[in-house]
Prior knowledge:
With 335 residues, this protein is of the alpha/beta class. It has helices at 24-32, 45-49, 53-56, 77-89, 104-107, 119-132, 152-161, 184-192, 209-219, 236-245, 255-272, 275-288, 299-307, 311-328; strands at residues 2-3, 6-7, 13-15, 37-39, 43-44, 68-73, 94-99, 137-142, 166-170, 200-203, 223-226. The radius of gyration is 20 Å and the shape is globular. The two termini are 29 Å apart. 45% of the residues are buried.
Amino acid sequence: MKIGKLDFGDFPLFLAPMEGVTDASFRLMCKEFGADMVYTEFVSADALIRHVNKTEAKLSISDEERPVVIQIYGREIEPMVEAAKICRDANPDILDINFGCPVKRVAGKGAGAGMLRNIPQMLKITKAVVEAVDIPVTVKTRLGWDHDSRIIETLAEELQDCGIAALSIHGRTRSQMYTGSADWDYIGRVKANPKIKIPIIGNGDVTSAEIAKERFEEYKTDAIMIGRGAIGAPWIFRDIKGYMLNPDTYKPLSVEEKMNVFRRQMRESIARLDERRGILHIRRHLAATTLFKGIPNFRDIKIAMLRAEKEDELNAIFDTIQEKYLNNKIGDEEN
Length: 335
């Protein structure tokens, strides 16, 4: 599968853009575990052209991450074009436009998935951005605004006509937010449409190697994008690749190795932010991980882990968890 001049081979896996999650450290970690391409946290076009420091910091990428995508969102043509040019100067491999974020502060203002209620403006923005930069431009969107307006089959053709190099589809409507199940049937229909010549990337509810294999085989997407399935489990890319390519010889990471991933995340988050904010940042991963599933009487330990405020305190809790986990031999088969 190719996007522009980038060749991703068979069964490519992409790390989805996630606000507050896909910082540089996490992107690099997922890359090391086998992600074929990673995306930055999404970048507000309006904030970028106002030179908001926190937003400009999101444009910082490294060669170790490549291929890497910067994603932008906005609702007006001129700010999006100007922001696209600023992003291009940061030298990403691809520029992605977010037409899929469902949160109220974005979609409620007409950006992100809010654009699904203003398709003419969406297409104007897309065409203008494609024409403004000399790198591949892609789009990420959803099935439609709600159950009664699942327009992705027609929309995919219209976006392709704007000149995008690939399309990522999350299998939910905006109204669903992240509830219910992702509907991959619509993604499969877009991929099967003979008029669609660009790569189609499927996204939604891929949380295991088995699910990824099923999605590739049933819906024939060119790539799979993994979002929430990577939170608290950046090794999911390694698991999928091993399961699909070397099923007879692949061995998952041990519990000890997975615990060391969390220790690394904590160290790097603290180094990037500070002790208090770094530990707050990693809590989302600790709360989401399935690694601790099956530990008896774990509730009190989990509460203490999510309330820890010091590096030494959290490391001590990790030590306790690791001893209990390893002694009980829980998790290796499940995770």
